[in-house]
Design goal:
574 residues, mainly beta, Immunoglobulin-like, globular, oxidoreductase activity, copper ion binding, transmembrane helix, membrane
């Protein structure tokens, strides 16, 4: 259920529910200054055993009975209110992958920022798509629940006053593609104590918008998009899976890459596109073939598609005048084991420096050609066994998820008794693997260099909440300072999720101008669940709410803190 109403961008949101009459009077008074709207959504989140994306008695997490969940369709600077009713039998949080939550990590929806929504209760997120455009998605962030669904698309459209660097397409399609396992997510979660399952198991099938591949006996339906010959369509593609990167292609059709995770790219014509876990792209497809049906394919990287045929996602591009299903072999893509193809393509995805995005000034106004780096973190992942259980570590530290959100502790007791700031080694590897509540300082309004080293045998993805980062370099083997000479500092693309190839490194720059407690994690669900994450605390001592938003009025309390709002009256952040 959704409701829309217009508000001026300068209106404060404190007290909307308390003073609804004033709220709507203000809307009337300032209608002529409207430049954003309020979007009100009501979500009932529940396990549904009737949807059955494959022929298994398997509950999925549905939102208002939908799997995938409903589209959040917004415009730059809109305010989104999502009232989440948790009808599961365990706590729940949603995170908004790529939405930067400007000055407001209270709405980020991860374990380090929010108390969970308990079963049988509801809680309302309120966040703004401040200064953003692009393609994103949401998903449940705790308890391994993403493996059961609960994900859905987010569009942030341009304001009408901003020119878009391509003609308006005739229609848009959201395409959420991801690997899927047949087991109940709770069963899989319980098996994460087994090193073989934790480190070596792979999913069973690839779904497109929650539907199995065309022709696969496990499914009752397949995904299909109807197009009209001569028209142009925007496909917003997201990898919502848990484990596998994939290569995306459409039979007999080329694609024009135009956007990724809020950045307009240099427009490149592609036969296929690698999409890594947690990433989102927009491509334009022209229906310029004879009226027929054509295969849409997403095949896994670093796996033999013949041996794992169910992990090849297959949908259909259906021309409106077509009378037959697609025929012939699936369109071939690059060798799934050809890492160089993927790296070369990644390097070719560049920022469009001349177009505006959320603002009219060109994206290239903000560039990294001559920035001064104030911090460098070198983060290496690996697998280990700690106290008899398998874990994934970063610099030999596996993140220990605790009951008290770090942001809440930061607000009330400056983190005392909950975490030790900067105990995590950002440029070295501890001698022995151990647990830690990893929180590190990010210099406010400083440039940080993050170097991700992947010591595992599969493609990893790293994501940073709260920011877009500039992807400046990829390389093989160990990173060293001299390799900065290979960076692209002219037009690196800005995004929030980046892949790291096996045995290789990826380097990104980020400008830490967004105060808050921000999650830096692997997008691979097992890696994240097993400890591959940390938090960057970007702090501004100025209590001015224009610098960072205060806690919301509906703030939840949990962990070591009494569930009483009176705590906020007796504690403040120094």
């Amino acid at each position: 259920m959704a409701f829309l109403c217009s508000v001026p961008t300068t209106m404060a949101f404190t007290g909307f529910h308390r003073y609804p009459f004033v709220h709507f009077v203000l809307i009337g008074l300032f209608a002529i200054t409207v430049s954003a709207i309020d979007i009100f959504l009501e979500w009932n989140v529940a396990l549904d055993s009737t949807i059955q994306p494959v022929s298994q008695l398997q509950p999925v997490i549905a939102i208002n009975g939908l799997f995938p969940g409903p589209l959040i369709n917004t415009t730059t600077n809109d305010y989104v209110h999502v009232n989440v009713f948790n009808n599961l039998d365990e706590p729940l949080l949603f995170t908004w992958n790529g939405i930067q939550q400007r000055l407001n990590s209270w709405q980020d929806g991860v374990s380090g920022t929010n108390c969970p929504i308990l079963p049988g209760t509801n809680w309302t997120y309120v966040f703004q798509t401040k200064d953003q455009i692009g393609s994103f998605f949401y998903f449940p962030s705790i308890n391994f629940q993403k493996a059961a669904g609960g994900f859905g698309p987010i569009r942030v459209n341009n304001r009408n006053v901003i020119a878009v660097p391509f003609a308006k397409p005739d229609d848009e399609f959201d395409l959420l593609i991801g690997d899927w396992s047949f087991d109940n997510y709770k069963v899989t979660r319980s098996l994460m104590t087994d090193p073989t399952i934790a480190f070596d198991s792979i999913p069973n099938i690839m779904l497109m918008n929650g539907k199995p591949p065309f022709g696969n006996p496990q499914g009752k339906a397949f995904e299909s998009f109807t197009v009209t010959q001569g028209n142009v369509y925007r496909f917003r593609i997201s990898n919502v899976g848990t484990t596998l990167s994939f290569n995306f292609r459409i039979q007999n059709h080329r694609m024009l890459l135009v956007e990724t995770e809020g950045s307009y790219t240099n427009q490149t014509i592609l036969d296929s596109l690698d999409v890594h876990v947690g990433q989102s792209y927009s491509v334009l497809v022209t229906a310029n073939q004879v009226d027929a049906d054509y295969f849409i394919v997403a095949s896994p990287k670093l796996l033999n598609a013949t041996e794992f045929s169910s992990l090849v996602g297959v949908g259909v591009l259906h021309y409106s005048n077509s009378v037959a299903q697609p025929v012939g072999p699936l369109p071939t893509g690059p060798d799934p084991f050809d890492i160089n193809f993927s790296i070369d393509q990644a390097k070719s995805i560049r920022w469009n420096m001349t177009t505006g995005a959320a603002r009219p000034n060109p994206q290239g106004t903000f560039n990294v050609t001559n920035v001064t780096i104030s911090q460098t973190f070198i983060l290496q992942n690996s697998e280990d066994v700690i106290k008899g259980s398998p874990h994934v570590v970063v610099n030999n530290v596996s993140y220990l998820t605790i009951d008290t959100p770090l942001k809440l502790a930061d607000q009330l007791v400056n983190g005392s008794g909950v975490y030790q700031l900067d105990a995590f080694p950002v440029q070295s590897i501890n001698l022995n693997a151990s647990f830690g509540v990893s929180v590190v300082t990010g210099n406010h309004k400083g440039w940080i260099e993050l170097v991700f080293k992947n010591n595992l045998e599969f493609i990893d993805s790293w994501h940073l909440d709260g920011f877009g980062f500039y992807v400046v370099g990829f390389g093989d083997g160990d990173w060293m300072a001299a390799l900065r000479m290979t960076y692209n500092l002219f037009d690196p693309v800005v995004r929030s999720t980046v892949q790291v190839y096996p045995g290789g490194w990826t380097a990104v720059y980020a400008f830490l101008d967004n105060p808050g407690m921000w999650n830096l994690r692997s997008q691979l669900l097992k890696n994240w669940f097993l400890g591959q994450e940390l938090y960057i605390r970007v702090h501004d001592n100025d209590p001015n709410p224009a610098k960072e938003r205060p806690p919301p009025e509906n703030l939840l309390f949990c962990g070591i803190f009494n569930k009483s709002a009176s705590l906020l009256e007796h504690h403040h952040r120094p």
